[in-house]
Amino acid sequence: MAALAPLPPLPPPFKSIQHHLRTAQEHDKRDPVVAYYCRLYAMQTGMKIDSKTPECRKFLSKLMDQLEALKKQLGDNEAITQEIVGCAHLENYALKMFLYADNEDRAGRFHKNMIKSFYTASLLIDVITVFGELTEENVKHRKYARWKATYIHNCLKNGETPQAGPVGIEEDNDVEENEDAGATSLPTQPPEPSSSSAYDPSHMPSGSFTGIQIPPGAHAPANTPAEVPHSTGVTSSTVQPAPQTIPAIDPALFSTISQGDIRLTPEDFARAQKYCKYAGSALQYEDVSTAVQNLQKALRLLTTGRE
């Protein structure tokens, strides 16, 4: 992919989108679709913050140039031309990154790459909002990932051993309210083996989400959707993909007999198509469980008119 023209310095009002733009830069070569939507999110958010002052207008204009250049380069990519496919791609990518970090966490392997994966997953869930409102599940994953990144980072920083898996402490702050949630030293590019740069969420508020039930990520391969950056000095053992747990199929879903009074709306067909796209995207990552779950949702909707 051709290099993009650099952006001018980030105006202070746009501080809240700096980490999304850094994530875009990290994915320019790794996954251009993710990079495109990270910039689109930054553009939409920036427009809401300030589109009138000269400094902000200039920055947004250059960011728009980047988006147009990316869209031209990716013109034949369905994830760019079709919103449903793009949403499925981004959602599965974010989930894959979340599950990598969650697998590492539950196995007691605490290191900088898994902290960054948790935090980056939360940023990518932010980006999913370019397609509309987040599902309740995505909102919970975003909160959990940001809090977990903070918790593990602070434990390692203080020489303490983090507790694996969901941890219950007082929920006195909501990290979503802090637009500049940490990562102040996130590298613009993935760290090289000799680099000492590290993700630092030290400014994130503490908090927990004791009511959130995050399922173990054992059914997903224990690696991120992209190549995990080289370790920055913290040694972790090699992760082997865990066996996949395929959900049981509801026999009732095989009954396709119409009840006679079922009337599917255009929105119903659109949702069913969306679930099928999600399933196809999940299969690209060999995530059988997610694929089956989405196909079940589509079949249930088409045969009963309900989700």
UniProtKB/TrEMBL annotation:
Membrane topology note: Peripheral membrane protein
Protein name: Vacuolar protein sorting-associated protein VTA1 homolog
Listed Acidic residues bias regions: 169-180
Matching InterPro entries: Vta1-like, Vta1/CALS_N, Vta1/CALS_N_sf, Vta1_C
Alphabetized UniProt keyword annotations: Acetylation, Cytoplasm, Endosome, Membrane, Protein transport, Transport
Biased composition (Polar residues): 194-211, 232-243
Family: Belongs to the VTA1 family.
GO process annotations (BP): late endosome to vacuole transport via multivesicular body sorting pathway; protein transport
Subcellular localization, as worded in the UniProt entry: Cytoplasm; Endosome membrane
Domain of life: Eukaryota
Vta1/callose synthase N-terminal domain: residues covered: 16-158
Biological classification of the source: Eukaryota, Metazoa, Chordata, Craniata, Vertebrata
Pfam families associated with the record: Vta1, Vta1_C
Stretches assigned to the Vta1 C-terminal domain: 266-303
Subunit annotation: Interacts with VPS4B. Interacts with CHMP1B. Interacts with CHMP2A; the interaction probably involves the open conformation of (polymerized) CHMP2A. Interacts with CHMP3. Interacts with CHMP5; the interaction involves soluble CHMP5. Interacts with IST1.
Organism: Dipodomys ordii
Residue ranges of the region described as Disordered: 160-244
GO cellular component: endosome membrane; multivesicular body
Range of residues in the leader sequence: none
Chief place of localization: cytoplasm
